[in-house]
Structures are given as C-alpha cells and as structure tokens.
Amino acid sequence: MFIQTEATPNPATLKFLPGQVVMEMGTANFTAGDDAARSPLAQRLFGIAGVAGVFLGGDFITATKTPDGDWDALKGQILSAIMDHYTSGEPIITEAAQVQVPEGAEEEGGVVGQIRELIETRVRPAVAQDGGDIIFHGFQEGIVYLQMQGACSGCPSSSATLKHGIENMLKYYVPEVLEVRPVE
Q1: pTM summary value
Q2: CATH 3.30.1370.70 fits 4-97, yes or no
Q3: CB 42 within 8 A of CB 52
C-alpha cells in the first residue's frame, strides 16, 4: 500500500491519501480521542502522542498535530498506523455510526436549497482539496452559518475563505444572503 501525503494550507494539518475509499458517504470529524469511539482508525491515530485531531473524507484522512507536535516525528507514525489499520480489516467507521443525516436536510426548498446546492457543488470540493469539509448549520435572517472541519478548522486562512470567498459567491447567486458566519 502506498499512501501519499500532501501539505494543507493549515500548517498544523497534513492530508494522507491511501489510494482507497476512506468514507463511502459523508465525512467524520474527531477533535479529541474521546470522540473517536465510533472509528477504529481515528482511535488508532489518537493513540499517537502529538495527534490532536482526525478528519475522514471520501478518499483522504487529515491529521492535526498538537502545537508542540513535530511533523518529522509524527508523519511516519501516522503512515504506519494508517497502513496497519487497512491491513487489519477493521472498518473505518463502525456500522452503527455509518449514516448521519445532515442538519436541516428536510429544508431543501427555496433559499436553503440554493445555498446547500452551491455549498455541495462549488464549495465542498474545493475545501476537500485542502483536506477539510464545510458543514451548513442554518440560514436565518440573511445569515448563513457554516462550520469548517478537518484541515480548514483553525486554519489561518479559514476566516478569509468564509468571508471573501464563500460569502461573496453566496451573495452573488443568492441575493437573500447578507452574511456568512462561522460556527465553532
């Protein structure tokens, strides 16, 4: 198995591409080892001292290091843990945790539907390229609430991406949008 590694705009996060499907559907974000009970892979990665976060995308895994973590020391350990996981035959996510319905999925019509479609078709693929994901949390009184995950969470450029990139695009295509705000 050959696993490629890519830098992300977030210096605290690296993207690992195992050349295989990671998540069949959706994404999974783990910000602490205690959150990783539903993912044997995430648990394995949190077992490495210096790993502060794990994000699972369609075909990639991002690992976020602690502030004192050193990529020279961590990278090999993470690569080894990913290889060990794939050869173990264990699932990435336990069966009981596989399907999650996105928040507000029932509100697909009108403005919310337009916003969701733009996020799915234009924003999410670009954010995934950087090792992250973006989650729609709601639309109220002209304000779109979005959450950045994976490499994009805590990235120095994430607020600029939200304000200048995503907000401008949404305002252009959906005049009802007045502002985009992050959800932590």
Answers
A1: 0.74
A2: yes
A3: no
